[in-house]
């Protein structure tokens, strides 16, 4: 009987230790939140949310990028209005292409309270990625109010226009020595707005004197900005792009860059 009690005690202790390791692993798993508040479009036919979402598996979605995050051990989730409470539950926050009135009748514009919550979250260690769009396709006025908190703003322009399938018009080949472009010699960016920099913000990719990608360290956090949704399903692989483009590798590098800036708890 005494031996049986010892065996039961050992089994119970082992279970407690295993559960402790599991809880520790779950707590260390980064959570990546994709905005569905400022980008809040509904498909005209299905009446379901779509466009730059994890759940959108069509050309317009980010389902493939989501799979890259999950392959890196991250959890992916969708974020509504970015309150301090909502942001406290995620490590990486991605805002893509905030709506104009041509995309949704009643857009959720970035308000002062949103900007304050996001800025405070970044300063405490949050990782923010903004993938905007070019001039006709993105709400700039309020988005720039947010970006100016981090020394950046977008210009209301369209660079890299691409005609039909002339993909070389969107090619970037002279890539700098930066973790985003490790092992990458050529990427595709179609119709992008450029970025103004102030303070400590730094250019990641510059072309003909125009900053196409930028970053900044703010407090304990990190901010990444590009004026294009860039690596959505249509242009992450070679469904349409010629084999010479390496957007998937760049997307993997971006994923590693964002997760690498998450502060360990």
Describe the protein.
This protein has 265 residues and is α/β, with parallel strands linked by helices. It has a single domain (30-260), classed as 3-Layer(aba) Sandwich (Rossmann fold), CATH 3.40.50.880. It contains six helices and 13 strands. The strands form four sheets. A seven-stranded mixed sheet has the order 4-1-5-6-13-12-11. A two-stranded antiparallel ribbon has the order 2-3. It has a two-stranded antiparallel sheet with strand order 7-10. Strand 5 (92-96), helix 4 and strand 6 form a beta-alpha-beta unit. The protein is globular, with a radius of gyration of 21 Å. The termini are far apart. Mean pLDDT is 92; it is low at 2-8 and 10-26.
Would you summarize the structure shown here?
By secondary structure, this protein is an alpha/beta fold.
């Amino acid at each position: 009987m005494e031996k049986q009690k010892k065996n039961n005690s050992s089994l119970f202790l082992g279970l407690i230790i295993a559960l402790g390791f599991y809880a520790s692993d779950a707590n260390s798993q980064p959570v990546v939140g994709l905005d569905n508040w400022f980008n809040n479009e509904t498909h005209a036919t299905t009446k379901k949310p779509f466009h730059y979402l994890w759940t959108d598996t069509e050309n317009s979605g980010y389902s493939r990028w989501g799979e890259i995050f999950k392959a890196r051990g991250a959890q992916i989730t969708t974020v509504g209005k970015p309150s301090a409470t909502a942001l406290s539950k995620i490590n990486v926050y991605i805002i893509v292409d905030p709506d104009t009135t041509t995309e949704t009748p009643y857009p959720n514009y970035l308000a002062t309270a949103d900007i304050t919550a996001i800025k405070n979250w970044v300063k405490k260690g949050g990782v923010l990625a903004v993938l905007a769009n070019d001039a006709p396709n993105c709400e700039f006025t309020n988005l720039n109010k947010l970006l100016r908190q981090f020394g950046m703003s977008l210009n209301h322009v369209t660079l890299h226009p691409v005609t039909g399938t002339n993909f070389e018009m969107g090619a970037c080949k002279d890539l700098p020595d930066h973790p985003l472009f490790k092992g990458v010699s050529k990427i595709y960016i179609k119709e992008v707005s450029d970025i103004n920099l102030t303070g400590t913000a730094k250019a990641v990719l510059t072309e003909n004197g125009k900053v196409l990608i930028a970053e900044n360290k703010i407090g304990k956090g990190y901010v990444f900005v590009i004026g294009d949704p860039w690596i959505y399903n249509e242009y992450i692989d070679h469904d349409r792009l010629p084999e010479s483009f390496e957007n998937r590798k760049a997307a993997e590098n971006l994923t590693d860059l964002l997760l690498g800036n998450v502060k360990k708890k």
